[in-house]
């Protein structure tokens, strides 16, 4: 029996100061060209929280707008204010930087995050008002320290700066004197990942109404490495986030696969539930400070605001089949194997057409394909084009070659079976999974039958292999829900079958007598 998706949690933390302090592009520029014009201009291109709230792709991410509504807005989007500006949405929320900094401190269990006393006092009440933040989180917020102590830690211990509104408000200390894997830079990166994952899990619990102790397993699929010099990527982010989120009955582990990791994790979660090993599994991932302002030079050069100013997070709840929620169909899995090759045509063939063919489906039987959903506002101005559109064109072109589409249908296929991109360019975050919230709603409403989630990854980044990676899985409207929509529930169907069998057996007995 297939497992189902019961809900999602999608969150964004607006972190403009972290763009300057922690984004890899900016950190590198400070080393190689500290007096560059880019660094001087950068602060004037940062968005306010209100501007981030009014940005169309952000509102789609948290569920106040749909991908279909976004598709109707002429690109580019950065200069067109959205009419929805709430920080809370159907799938999660956007959190301002001051609250997120406090949440980072709440996620610190080794006294590494030091915040200035006045900053804590000024912003603590705002965090307490957040609907997903409970007393257990607030109890972890400490009073703070004097600014002089923070300055000394930065000067003497190489602590990483934490700023808000351009002012120094705290720091993250190194966790070891000589281990680079526990340096202040890495600890800040990991605490940010953990905090955004915790916020995603709390949003997931809030959205689904599930009791925290019902979640039995957590899978983290971010791109960070948690460990020391003896086991630099050993983990376990999953359990670390579950602890702060209050998931006391959960165990868990980490899955790493670059951008493909969320789809790998979704498949593993579905398999764990379908096998009976666990009844309820949460897939989660926090965001990445390294990718903040990643394409900032191109954006500043072209007069744009810094659009990569959001730390993102996601969570998906996978449970046993309830006859209502959309099913994860493990019989329709696409796999990029070691022997597949890296040519775009064979990649799409292995991830899209091979699993559909095995299931007796055509490419047009899938309502929407959800591959890399990078926001084209970000990628186009950086010279990378529209990534989702390129994927849809490749899927459609291969369909033409295979005879499943007419050449004249190609443009319509792209618009009718593809989502526009809206996710932040945070590596793993855009990789297929951000569409699950919308797809689930559409399936529950009877407006969608199938969506294929496609995760792809570039393994060469680790310098261990030149192989490509990819995995896909089909999510479909629950068959139980379909029966109920036609007036006959799954239970009633089973009852009718049982009754018919009893009557048939009685007839055989009568004939025998």
Describe the structure.
With 513 residues, this protein is an alpha/beta fold. It is built from 21 helices and 13 strands.
Quick rundown:
With 513 residues, the protein is an alpha/beta fold. The chain is 42% helix and 16% strand. The chain is built from 21 helices and 13 strands.
What's the layout of helices and strands?
Blueprint: E1 3-14, H1 16-22, H2 24-32, H3 37-41, H4 49-53, H5 56-62, H6 67-71, E2 92-95, H7 97-107, E3 113-115, H8 117-128, H9 135-138, H10 147-157, E4 160-164, E5 167-172, H11 184-208, E6 217-220, H12 237-245, E7 251-254, H13 261-275, E8 280-285, H14 296-301, E9 310-319, E10 327-335, H15 344-358, E11 368-370, H16 376-381, H17 387-402, H18 410-417, H19 436-444, E12 450-458, E13 468-476, H20 479-485, H21 490-512
Helix pairs in contact: 7-8, 7-11, 11-12, 15-17, 17-18
